Amino acid sequence: MPERSKQDPKLYGERATAVASATLEALLAVRRLPPEAGVVVLRDVLIGLAQAHEQGLVHGGIRAADVLVDLDGHCRLQAPARPVAAAADDPPDTEVDDAAPELRAGAPASPTTDGYSAAVVFLASLADQHEAPVGTGLVPSTYEELAGPVRRVVARATAQDPAERYPDVRSFREELEAAAVAVHGPQWAERGQRFLADSVEATVSSHPLVGPVDDGPGPWWRRRRLALAALALLVLLAVAVVVLFEGGEPKREVREPFDQALAALARAPGVRYQDHNQFTGYYDLAVTATAERFGAMGGSEDFSDKVAEDVTTVAGRDYVSYRNDAALKGWIYDPGGDEKNLAPRFKTYVVPGKLAAQLRAALDEQPRLPVVGDEADATVAVDGQPAWRADTVQGYLYVSKNAPYRVLRWEPPNLETAMAALKAMAKDPSSRRSRAMEAHTPLTYSLGINLTPVTDATALYGKVVRLTKELASATTGGSVQILQQRGDGSKVACSHTGCLVDVAFSGPVYNATSPAHRLDNVYIEMKVASITTGGQEVGGCSSGLRAYRLTGASLAGKISCNNPAGGPLFDRADAANRARANSSGRSSFWDYTSAPELLVHPLSPTDVDQLVAKEQHELQSLG
Prior knowledge:
Blueprint: E1 21-23, H1 24-28, H2 35-54, E2 57-58, E3 67-70, E4 75-77, E5 82-83, H3 84-89, H4 101-104, H5 111-125, H6 140-145, H7 148-157, H8 169-184, H9 188-205, H10 220-245, H11 256-267, E6 270-277, E7 281-288, E8 293-298, E9 309-314, E10 317-322, H12 335-346, H13 352-363, H14 375-378, E11 381-382, E12 385-392, E13 395-400, E14 407-411, H15 415-427, H16 435-438, E15 446-454, H17 457-470, E16 483-495, E17 498-508, E18 521-533, E19 536-549, E20 554-563, H18 566-584, E21 591-593, E22 597-601, H19 605-621
Antiparallel strand pairs: 1-3, 2-5, 3-4, 6-7, 6-15, 7-8, 8-9, 9-10, 11-12, 12-13, 13-14, 14-15, 16-17, 17-20, 18-19, 18-21, 18-22
Helix pairs in contact: 2-5, 2-8, 2-9, 7-8, 9-15, 11-13, 17-19
């Protein structure tokens, strides 16, 4: 077997300026990938594998260190490949923990083993560092976090039996891309490549800062940072000496406006978040003191894009509705999608009291507060409003400069601010790092959140109640799929008592695992638009809501509706048919129904009434 590359797996090439690329392992050493970026990596790897397979070459096993990511966010393989015939004669590469099970058991490398290995590297790229470093095989918890369509694709690619996997990497890639569009929308690749490009730029940009210094013990990048830290300390000591011996006056830091603003936030009945997430888009959400939530999210700031959605959260469950697509408009609750996708997205947008407590805790950890008279602090503003800014371990916090003080904006640490700081430190080693960088606070995807405390409790909860009432017509979308059974399973029969439509149904259920999001019951309603008996139009019928218990991965049952008006029509049609049969000896009589429509609802009218009563009580408790 050809020997693998001995390059430093943390950075491709001897110098960042030599090749503007970084290995996937280098990026994962900083943070895990968001799902869209992980899918981009897997897609590009599969494209490279397809090209190799068409030439009769295989890789056998792939590491994160074998994947190069460039400044455009594109990936390519640098692992050596060999002919399939030669692979059959070579011993398997047992050093690759992400290799397929049959490869580790001694079977030769094949296109199927390449696809398996690529899928496992994808799973590992989404895992937290403390959970499973890259190269340790399957990551069960990461697999469970995948959205349903992507999870099914990866499950097939990593099947233990090679015969159950994709026959080739091209079909693997086609289903992967289709699943990515279904889960993340049509712009998933653009967002994923943007993240990868920014991550590579941050790695490459930081190279001048971490170049070799001497031949002492320890990594050269750590020795350079220690040297810069020592230099910064000397500069601070020099400033202190100047202040001490030249009679400088102590700085007067501004703290009281922050304390008053956070106290007002903690008392507020609600808070509005206007967030720009670097990869998932824009959010405009109001959160009440009792954890209801409503607003919008989408790919454009004004939420005019096709995939923009309205959001409302009631009793801990997130309902969405496409706001700009009439065909898809209507509240939907998807328990699995809520648990895996929406709930993690919304975890930043907490109730006012909890947000105030989090920001107050950050202010208590040695913040850098603004200074009275400082020229830079005097020019700070948020959307044109003069503001005080505090540098905290949780990012930058802005409050109004004039009383009554209120919070204006919170900027959690993110990749853009980290890149800017690295570039500044590369140009000027004495540049001060933010408190978040000093505290090693994990980066977020938020580019900044405008905050507005909501003081009108009546209007706030009035909106919550109105939206909750709308949930009476909410459905479960594709999480509970009803497949109607024709023939003996569904039938219509008219008699002198009316026309009865019976439908037998079954279908898969994609439920959540946690009690907070799992549906225990659903309410199914059948609607039939048209019934005819003996050629006479009867009209339609509706079953009303019928409760069904969800206990597993599928649901089956029967449901019926009746239209009593069909009785007299049946009698007339039946009499005419008998007369026709007596006179001509021929009989022609049938009952017919249009295709029944079955709607699955997560809430009953009683459930909705109870939620509304709870919200009205919450408003009264706020005084």
